[in-house]
Amino acid sequence: MKHLFLMAFVSLLLTGCRQRDANPNILPPATQTGENTGGCLVDGKVWVATKHYNQLVATRVSVSRGYSDIYIYLQSVRGGVGEKSDIIIKLKKINLELNKEYSLTQINDSINAEGGSAEYENNILTGPYYRTNNKNYTGKIKITRLDTEKQIVSGLFEFDAIDEDGNVVHIKDGRFDHRF
């Protein structure tokens, strides 16, 4: 009986310590403490990054010669792999100032590319794939914290993006708080 009680207690401790996903119906708060959270409104509906599938390690920051490259990757999985969606934001070769808004338009992936872009992919298996461009479908991002010692990057974002068929998605009230 003593062993059964001990196993139940240890099991309770282990499940209580496991990291849980945020409520998928409520946006996480806009924190700046490295909580590894992210979320936004996608066409008015709450979208929250999931921690147990989210590849938060894919968030990358590099700073050299006064320029910053920041790559934010948020992923949400509800159900199986087919119900996965991603938000990717790239800032390349920017002279970063905290709390300054940077445009999200369209940049290429070449080494010399500069600027910012954003993408939204709804359902990895079937698409569609939306991206910002240099015309009517743009956005903005504001980095509110960049701590290279504690390896924390936090910020706010929003953008409109278009797919190849002309369908538009509106991403609003976005926030992220990641360790890199």
TrEMBL record:
Pfam families in the cross-refs: DUF6252 (PF19765)
Source organism, top-level taxon: Bacteria
InterPro entries registered for this protein in UniProt: DUF6252
Protein name: Lipoprotein
Species the sequence originates in: Riemerella columbipharyngis
